[in-house]
Amino acid sequence: MPVSSPANEEELLARAAVLAGESIAEVAQGLGLPVPADLSKHKGWVGMLIERALGASAGSRPEPDFEHLGVELKTLPVDRAGKPCESTFVCTISLGELCEMEWEDSRVRRKLSRVLWVPVQGERERELRLRRFGTPLIWSPDADELSALRFDWEELAGLVTRFGVDAITGHAGRFLQIRPKARDASVRRHGFAADGASIDALPRGFYLRPSFTFEILRRHFAL
DNA sequence: GATTGATCATGT
DNA sequence: ACATGATCAATC
């Protein structure tokens, strides 16, 4: 039985708050879903689980998870100290997009305008079914975060425009970075370079570094 | 131990 | 094909 869509942001947050303290096994059982032994072949499984538990609507469509609320849902795996143990995928790069586009219109900005972060225990030593959800947090970037993201985005967009997407490594960007996002390293996606030349490049996406998401948690929970 | 590049599954 | 959901694992 599918979970209904939350009517508003308050209800969404309240639903997520109910899950805090529950284990993955408990939440999965409530939905009648089997829990995989580990995530190695099911990397997005926890994210899908929480989507279903909260009544997310968008599925795999290029829309916010809660379309009518304009809210994006992200799980955030954290270690024992509450520090994120992974980067957070934001969105893919469409090759031509960065050249002429401005930050205000960017997909990074839109994706991150409103996010429901759901912390979940993510230590690899901990059995998947026993990992517990943490207290959720509705977030929008404040002025500092916005300017930091904008700075990185503009730097990265400039690098892509001047040197091409294949010249980018994960080293660039203080909080936002560009990394591969594909089935494997042989995948090529068609697009156009800044000079208009047709190119085929490894698909990449924007990711938030753990230092950025840790700061979000720190500020909110006063860790 | 932290980080970058590689990879896995599923839905439209 | 390409979007969604991310974590794995080799390397620094």
In a nutshell, what does this entry contain?
The protein has helices spanning 9-19, 24-31, 45-54, 97-100, 107-111, 143-163, 210-221; strands at residues 72-78, 88-92, 115-121, 137-139, 176-180, 189-192, 198-201, 204-208. It is of the alpha+beta class and 223 residues long.
Explain what the structure shows:
The chain is an alpha+beta fold and 223 residues long. It has one domain (9-221): 3-Layer(aba) Sandwich (ECO RV Endonuclease, Chain A), CATH 3.40.600.10. Helix content is 32%, strand content 18%. It is built from seven helices and eight strands. It has helices at residues 9-19, 24-31, 45-54, 97-100, 107-111, 143-163, 210-221; strands spanning 72-78, 88-92, 115-121, 137-139, 176-180, 189-192, 198-201, 204-208. Strands 1-3-4 form a three-stranded mixed β-sheet, sandwiched between helices. A three-stranded antiparallel β-sheet has the order 2-8-5. A hairpin with a 5-residue loop joins strand 6 and strand 7. Helix 2 packs across helix 3. The radius of gyration is 18 Å and the shape is globular. The mean pLDDT is 94.
